[in-house]
């Protein structure tokens, strides 16, 4: 991931030998390389600008200690600031789900079709059951894709959680309210609501998910986004975060050949923490998102 950044940094490190401190002039070339690599990786321009400014601020005047070369010292700053860009400043609690509510805690999933919502519902249900010992109910409010309800049933049964059946002829809000009523009567700790996704953002879809949000008032509204999408992911993230009070992001398909731009921009664009990363298709392919580890991965 972000191979170009690693390569460009390595190249710049070589040109910066023999200086005792990081200065405006000896870091300029390297920062230019970093900026290009980030833009090539489809990181949103405002995020790139802020990132470069922060790296510059942190690096200037810094003494180069011990056996480090100035280039290596600057790589260290870049690595720490990459982690901050992805939410390291929020602390480890940022990836935790919030359960501080009268049960059931409702989790609403939002995102485009194909982002990985249904798969993530299965993974989350497994994680919550096994790691958090929660009794989980899932429901699909996707009444447009006939296969969607069946797909959710399959993954839910696969992980041993409970499934609330819905009909494509029902209205999404009615489905969600019926599932909530069922969850209350059967003492579920968590209700996860899968929603319809479209191929692109459209008004009707946003209105529908806003109405769902208003009807059930979820404690968590998670925006699921495909890390392979690049610049499109940024536009989608912006549209969803303008329309809905998101509480976090799930970045899927990080195991794929991702250019990394989404991982680096989505926190900046939404202002919300990345809570989980999808790292495989299978049901145990979900990890709590760790910005520092991600920054390590990016820089190889
Ligand atoms: P939805 O339309 O948003 O509900 O998306 P789906 O859950 O149906 O996922 C779309 C495709 O992406 C499926 O083939 C999933 O198996 C795949 N997928 C989802 N998450 C991941 C992931 O983290 N890694 C990989 N490799 N594939 C994933």
TrEMBL record:
<keyword id="KW-0733">Signal recognition particle</keyword>
<dbReference type="GO" id="GO:0003924">
    <property type="term" value="F:GTPase activity"/>
</dbReference>
<keyword id="KW-0378">Hydrolase</keyword>
<keyword id="KW-0342">GTP-binding</keyword>
<feature type="domain" description="Signal recognition particle SRP54 helical bundle">
    <location>
        <begin position="1"/>
        <end position="86"/>
    </location>
</feature>
<comment type="subunit">
    <text>Part of the signal recognition particle protein translocation system, which is composed of SRP and FtsY. SRP is a ribonucleoprotein composed of Ffh and a 4.5S RNA molecule.</text>
</comment>
<feature type="binding site">
    <location>
        <begin position="111"/>
        <end position="118"/>
    </location>
    <ligand>
        <name>GTP</name>
    </ligand>
</feature>
<protein>
    <recommendedName>
        <fullName>Signal recognition particle protein</fullName>
        <ecNumber>3.6.5.4</ecNumber>
    </recommendedName>
</protein>
<dbReference type="GO" id="GO:0006614">
    <property type="term" value="P:SRP-dependent cotranslational protein targeting to membrane"/>
</dbReference>
<keyword id="KW-0547">Nucleotide-binding</keyword>
<feature type="domain" description="SRP54-type proteins GTP-binding">
    <location>
        <begin position="104"/>
        <end position="300"/>
    </location>
</feature>
<keyword id="KW-0963">Cytoplasm</keyword>
<feature type="binding site">
    <location>
        <begin position="252"/>
        <end position="255"/>
    </location>
    <ligand>
        <name>GTP</name>
    </ligand>
</feature>
<keyword id="KW-0687">Ribonucleoprotein</keyword>
<dbReference type="GO" id="GO:0005525">
    <property type="term" value="F:GTP binding"/>
</dbReference>
<dbReference type="GO" id="GO:0008312">
    <property type="term" value="F:7S RNA binding"/>
</dbReference>
<dbReference type="GO" id="GO:0048500">
    <property type="term" value="C:signal recognition particle"/>
</dbReference>
<comment type="similarity">
    <text>Belongs to the GTP-binding SRP family. SRP54 subfamily.</text>
</comment>
<comment type="function">
    <text>Involved in targeting and insertion of nascent membrane proteins into the cytoplasmic membrane. Binds to the hydrophobic signal sequence of the ribosome-nascent chain (RNC) as it emerges from the ribosomes. The SRP-RNC complex is then targeted to the cytoplasmic membrane where it interacts with the SRP receptor FtsY. Interaction with FtsY leads to the transfer of the RNC complex to the Sec translocase for insertion into the membrane, the hydrolysis of GTP by both Ffh and FtsY, and the dissociation of the SRP-FtsY complex into the individual components.</text>
</comment>
<keyword id="KW-0694">RNA-binding</keyword>
<feature type="domain" description="AAA+ ATPase">
    <location>
        <begin position="103"/>
        <end position="300"/>
    </location>
</feature>
<feature type="binding site">
    <location>
        <begin position="194"/>
        <end position="198"/>
    </location>
    <ligand>
        <name>GTP</name>
    </ligand>
</feature>
């Amino acid at each position: 991931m972000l191979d170009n950044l690693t390569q460009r940094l390595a190249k710049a490190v070589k040109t910066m030998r023999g200086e005792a401190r990081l200065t405006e002039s000896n870091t300029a070339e390297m920062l230019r390389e970093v900026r290009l690599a980030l833009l090539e990786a489809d990181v949103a321009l405002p995020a790139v600008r802020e990132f470069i400014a922060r790296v510059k601020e942190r690096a200037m005047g810094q003494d180069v200690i011990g056996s480090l070369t100035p280039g290596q010292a600057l790589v260290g700053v870049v690595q720490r600031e990459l982690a901050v860009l992805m939410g390291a400043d929020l602390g480890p609690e940022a990836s935790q789900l919030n359960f501080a509510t009268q049960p059931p805690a409702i989790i609403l999933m939002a995102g485009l079709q194909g982002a990985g919502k249904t798969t993530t519902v299965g993974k989350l249900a497994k994680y919550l059951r096994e790691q958090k010992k929660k009794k989980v109910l899932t429901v699909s409010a996707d009444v447009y894709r006939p296969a969607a309800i069946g797909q959710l049933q399959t993954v839910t049964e696969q992980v041993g959680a409970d499934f609330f059946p819905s009909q494509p002829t029902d209205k999404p809000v009615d489905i969600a309210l019926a599932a909530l009523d069922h969850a209350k009567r059967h003492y579920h700790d968590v209700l996860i609501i899968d929603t319809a996704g479209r191929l692109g953002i459209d008004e009707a879809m946003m209105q529908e998910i806003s109405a769902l949000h208003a009807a059930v008032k979820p404690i968590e509204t998670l925006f699921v986004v495909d890390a392979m999408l690049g610049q499109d992911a940024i536009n989608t993230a912006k549209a969803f975060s303008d329309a809905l009070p998101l509480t976090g992001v799930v970045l899927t398909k990080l195991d794929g050949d991702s250019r990394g731009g989404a991982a680096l921009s989505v926190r900046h664009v939404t202002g919300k923490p990345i809570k989980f990363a999808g790292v495989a298709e299978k049901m145990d392919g979900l990890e709590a998102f760790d910005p520092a580890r991600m920054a390590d991965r990016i820089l190889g």
